[in-house]
Amino acid sequence: MYDPVHALIHANPKFQQLVRRRQRLAWTLSAVMLLLYIAFILLVAFRPDWLGARIWPELPVTWGIPAGIGLIISAFVLTGIYVHRANGEFDRLTHELLEEVLR
Amino acid sequence: MIGLRVLFFLTVAVAASMAAASDSLAGEITKHNTNVTAAVMFLGFVVATLAITYWAAKRNTSVANHYAAGGRITGFQNGLAIAGDYMSAASFLGISALVFGSGYDGLIYSIGFLVGWPIILFLMAERLRNLGRYTFADVTSFRLKQMEIRSLSACGTLAVVTLYLIAQMVGAGKLIQLLFGLDYSTAVILVGMLMVLYVLFGGMLATTWVQIIKAVLLLSGASFMAFMVMKHVGFDIGRLFSEAIAVHPKGEAIMRPGGLVKDPVSAISLGLALMFGTAGLPHILMRFFTVSDAKAARKSVFYATGFIGYFYILTFIIGFGAILLVSTDPAFKDASGELLGGNNMAAVHLAAAVGGNLFLGFISAVAFATILAVVAGLTLSGASAVSHDLYASVFKQGNADERAELCVSKITTVVLGAVAILLGILFEKQNIAFMVGLAFSIAASCNFPVLFLSMYWRKLTTRGALVGGALGLISAVTLMILGPTVWVQILGHAEPIFPYEYPALFSMALAFAGIWLFSVTDRSAAGDTERARFLSQYIRSQTGHGASGAVDH
Questions:
Q1: What's the burial of B222, exposed, middle or buried (CB within 10 Å: 0-12/13-18/19+)?
Q2: Does residue B296 have a pLDDT over 60?
Q3: Of the four listed, A46, A61, B171, B224, which is most buried by Cβ atoms within 10 Å?
């Protein structure tokens, strides 16, 4: 199980930088998603009348529609942001790190 | 080759039973005369998927191929397959029925199913890929005791898979009975046999491609239906809503949250079960091992989230379309004014309303295909838990011969198929609505906490994982039985002992608390070694260094 390379990787500043940046992004995006969803569920549970109110009095479209559809779209956009940064910046950093250590 | 001959016989058998079904229908007075179209299209799907199975069987020679398609699935393909696993017949017909019956509430449900995906991506997908090979127990047992932890994870897997399989089999039997006029047990046996064939001969490669084809068919069919609905209202969303309000018995109430979620505790508990249950479903987690690396694993979640989100927006439009076009048409109703076949058939009737008999046949065939693809994935993950976790790692202590392991996996597949058929027939008349909910609760309370903490918490030890995981499993099942769904609705007692419908909030809390308490109080030497091994696991999970490669043979 123990691999001496692991100690080298762990001591490398690039590793620390990679982990710090990626974890910050991952937890921030998770928090955004969770907060949006919990806010939505709390509205459903406590203030359903807000979601049921019409946006324009002459149209039957309620605030719940853009809120719901917006939540679906935000899930997609947030995953997009993460994949964009992880597959570009973070993978590049990982690659450089492994090159450096394994050489 | 024996496989080929079996495939051939099965195709003939399917064709014969389908022909028999349409014959028997011709004699009766039934609502649609379209079963022939549906049967022909379904037969086309079966033939195509069996051809894929035959193609995949030639490549299905090692455990790496059988469990993980050799790691050669691309991110885009895997995204479609994951979306396919998620877009079961239950979610297509069930959510559009929910929208049809109560409008906005359907959207609340689908959002709960979707929001777990970003969390899986941010916190789990790449670590899973970097640490595991075939099953999620590879990850949970990475630095803990193999025997104990793999047994626990296999229990969690088998519990989830069995409940899910029963729900799918019973749903399949009823749906096929309705759509094709096939006898219930014949339908269940047919589904069971086909799924065993896919998994037995084609392994993960065939299972994945069956899922991909079905996902494409379902997405195209649903897109067409939503397009036709929008065309009907002149692409004016306001008109869609106002016409629906005008004809729906609940009127304006369909535009706001209604009675689906009764109290805040139930709402949050359901939300947690949906969100974290997804991150503990074994057949979904297994898909992360079919791609070559962490990069492809991330891409697959991105595509999957897009497809699933798009699909749920479509079902919302389809549900409203059914209010407009199905509920107003007496041809789709029985004498008492109820929808033929119940509300779950709203989307199927809408298919007839917007696309005629040909399209109805298409959607019926797709619904059947959906069930087949989902049960095949479930069976494969159940069989892998037995062969890879229980047989190879616990029973043989990691020294299993690859051929023997593959053999055990195939035997288990056949056994699981037989069990699924048997349970499907046994549960025909039972109320099984709670089963998928219970499967999600178990996944969220047993599989997820152990998996998550094994990747994130250095101080986790075998003792903590074992006690906490078992607590989560037992409490999820017990609270579900004592709750309103089983205790009152099924067992017929007057008052539930546990007042909430969904146990996840409590059982998850219990699992996490148990894992924490029994880990921090673990003073054994083994516990110290396990904590010391975290660094190595951490480096591998972060960098992918030492991760199992794409092809392993």
A1: buried
A2: yes
A3: B171
**Cα nearest neighbour of B110 on chain A:** A72
Residue A64 C-alpha, separation from nearest chain B C-alpha, in angstroms: 7
- C-alpha B363/C-alpha B356 separation (Å) is 11
A98 contacts in chain B (CB < 8 Å): 543, 545
Partner residue opposite B118 with nearest CB, options A15, A18, A78: A78
Does the pLDDT at position B454 exceed 90? Answer: yes
- Please name the residue of chain A whose CA is at the shortest distance from the CA of residue B252: A60
Q: What are phi and psi of B424, to 5 degrees?
A: -60, -40
Listed residue (B270, B316, B307, B320) closest to B434, CA to CA = B270
Mean confidence (pLDDT) of chain B: 88
Q: Do A45 and B268 touch (CB under 8 A)?
A: yes
Q: Which residue has the tokens 């917006």?
A: A70
CB-nearest partner of B257 from A48, A69, A83: A48
Chain centroid to CA B346: how far?
A: 21
Indicate the pLDDT class of residue B25, thresholds 50, 70 and 90.
very low
| Surface-to-core class of residue A35, CB atoms within 10 Å of its CB (0-12 exposed, 13-18 middle, 19+ buried) | exposed
| Burial class, B146, CB count within 10 angstroms (exposed 0-12 / middle 13-18 / buried 19+) | middle
Total residues belonging to chain B: 553
Contact at 8 Å (CB) between B214 and B377?
Answer: no
C-beta atoms of B238 and A80 within 8 A? no
Residue pair B299/A83 in contact (Cβ under 8 Å)? The answer is yes
pTM for this model (two decimals): 0.90
Residue B176 — pLDDT band, cuts 50, 70, 90?
Answer: confident
B109: Cβ contacts below 8 Å, ≥ 6 apart: B95, B98, B260
CA distance A1 to chain B (A): 7
- C-alpha separations of B512 from B269, B432, B445, B465, B535 in Å: 15, 28, 8, 9, 22
Q: What is the pLDDT of residues B31-46, one digit of tens each?
A: 444 468 888 888 898 9
Confidence check: pLDDT of B24 > 50: no
